[in-house]
Amino acid sequence: MKKAISFLFCLISFQAFCQHKEVINTDKAPQPIGPYSQAIKSNGFLYVSGQVGVDPVSRKLVEGGVEAEVVQIMANIKAILSAAKLDLNHVVNTNIYMKDLSYFQKVNEIYGKYFSGSFPARTTIGVANLPIGANIEITVVASY
Question: Is residue 100 a part of any domain in this protein?
Fold first, then answer.
């Protein structure tokens, strides 16, 4: 009986741990345009929703093509990380979605300037389309 009670307590504690999540939101990054959060902090990780090159003030896609979009995306990601008291050094995984993979090298040059030391794991995927006519979308996972 003692083992059963101990097991039950452990199971309840584990479920409570796994269900804990905190919504992260900042006005320094674009507000969601659908039923999602900017980021969710849960179980030692921060999951940042995909960011496109939208200026948080004008709420419009920045002009200047993929290069300008990457710079704005990284600013948005940094703002969301900051709201969770993290920075780019905490990023462990990145997913990049691009409409035109011919910009791969240019994106690498810009993206690479935001990280030093050990780079996060990364996947880059070519896609047919992205929200609001964006050329690129980036999402990250950070650990805390």
Answer: yes
